[in-house]
């Protein structure tokens, strides 16, 4: 069976739609958090049309977003020093 993956670039992140710029997704995540501080990563993924793993990966890279608390009782906080 031939290898059909030979022309796929290796540096392309998985689960990210090609038509959504990375910085635009970050802005959309922050907007969702500002609207609902208790929103889950799964709900963000559904609204934005990406996987929850993509949301978690972006949040991990964002220095101005953090989750305070544990599980259901916690909430998101955004610092404005981007």
TrEMBL record:
User: What is a single Pfam family found in this protein's UniProt entry?
Assistant: HTH_DeoR
Q: Which GO terms describe its molecular function?
A: DNA-binding transcription factor activity
Q: What positions does the domain HTH deoR-type occupy?
A: 28-71
Determine the domain of life of the protein's source: Bacteria
Record has Transcription as a keyword: yes
Is Transcription regulation given among the entry's keywords? yes
Q: Which UniProt keywords apply?
A: Transcription, Transcription regulation
What is the protein name for this chain?
A: AsnC family protein
Q: Which organism is it from?
A: Anaerosacchariphilus hominis
The beginning of the lineage is:
Bacteria, Bacillati, Bacillota, Clostridia, Lachnospirales
